[in-house]
Amino acid sequence: MKLPQPAAAMPPRTLSSPTSPLKRLSPKRQPYRCLSCSLRLSQSPPQPQPQLQDASTTHFGFQSIPSSTKTSRVSSVFSSVASSYDNMNDLMSLGIHRLWKDHFVRSLNPGSPPSSPPSSPTHRRKPWTMLDIAGGTGDIAFRLLDHATLVNGDHESKVIVSDINPAMLAEGKRRALETPYAHSPRLEWLEANAESLPPSIASNSIDLYTVAFGIRNFTHRQRALREAYRVLKPGGVFACLEFSHVDNRLFNAVYKRWSFGAIPIIGQLVAGDRDSYQYLVESIERFPKQREWRDMIREVGFMIPGMSEEGEGGWEDLTGGVAAVHKGVKPLE
Questions:
Q1: Of 61, 211, 286, 311, whose CB has the highest number of CB atoms within 10 Å?
Q2: Is 131 helix (H, G, I), strand (E, B) or coil?
Q3: Going by C-beta distance under 8 Å and a sequence separation of 6 or more, which residues neighbour residue 194?
Q4: How many CA atoms does the CB half-sphere of 274 hold within 13 Å?
Q5: Residue 226's pLDDT is what?
Q6: Residue 174 Cα distances to 62, 64, 188, 318, angstroms
Q7: What is the pLDDT of residue 83?
Q8: Which pLDDT score is estimated for 260?
Q9: Could you tell me the mean pLDDT of each successive run of 10 residues in the chain, 333 residues long?
Q10: From CA 163, how far away is CA 160, in angstroms rounded?
């Protein structure tokens, strides 16, 4: 008696088959960046970053991307957060950014005091021309004009607010309507790239160049520094307020836990935009530390106030280094 032959084994079907309908319908999963991964990246020793300005890649937070794409990607971030910019900075600094900005402007004492008493026949003043870079929302510009007017009695000095992002400039113009400067010749708006300013910003034409919480997002910071040096008058001041690096280990651990653990989640809840806030906290981690940033400013030719002969100091830490103020003075010719 012949036993029946077993049926030939069917070839296994896999979900990865090109003809699989499940494969065609399955959405592509995006990589998930967990809190512990971000913290490990933030705490790992920084890799040396080449200073060549023509490098083909640069960083976007913790990602490495083509240099040619960074400007557009940063622009997308700030277009997304323009209307909630104050909320963003409140989250990043626990609300202290307003005090930092007030202190920053007071330390610069913008505006030209009269060269003689107002009753004197020789009474005159020379107005300042100030350039606020990455200042689209007007936060620093309004403070500069308020200080010049109310503290120094200067009603002529002006501020040019420059930003590469039209959405940020639109937000600033909207806010200006609530100030005395909305339709004043003392306030101008300019859409421009700080790494290559337009001919309307002539060499040796600016008395004070400010940039607050913006320069860490630039693709080529050295180019922006060289442009700052070019447009400033001899004796003019470059002033930068930026998130920086905490020098106390315990405080730093708490701050990073807040930055990487809470801020992106709150950004998702408040603004529906986790990715932008994730990038912003990562961009702080990738920004040069205080000494390195001071040296980059010095390399383009600026004199550094407060720097000792031994090479110490030359910046001001705020709130333990959560932010820092750096200044440079263009030498007199």
A1: 211
A2: strand
A3: 133, 134, 162, 164, 211, 214, 215, 218, 224, 227, 228
A4: 11
A5: 98
A6: 33, 35, 13, 30
A7: 66
A8: 87
A9: 47 43 41 45 45 55 65 64 68 84 97 67 77 94 98 96 93 95 96 96 98 92 97 98 94 89 82 79 91 98 95 96 97 89
A10: 10
Cα separation of 54 and 39, whole Å? 30
Integer Cα distance of 295 and 315 in angstroms = 11
Buried b (16+ CB within 10 A) or exposed e, 213-239: bbbbbbbbbbbbbbbbbbbbbeebbbb
Residue 268: the pLDDT is 81
Q: What is the DSSP letter of 210?
A: E
Residue 114 neighbours by CB distance under 10 Å: 15
Predicted confidence at residue 32, as pLDDT, reads 41
Q: Which residue has the tokens 């113009």?
A: 173
Can you state the angle between helices 166-176 and 67-81, rounded to 10 degrees?
30
**Tokens found for residue 230:** 């070019």
CB of 213 closer than 8 Å to CB of 143: no
How many alpha carbons fall within 13 Å on the CB side of residue 140?
34
Q: Which two tokens stand for residue 315?
A: 């910046």
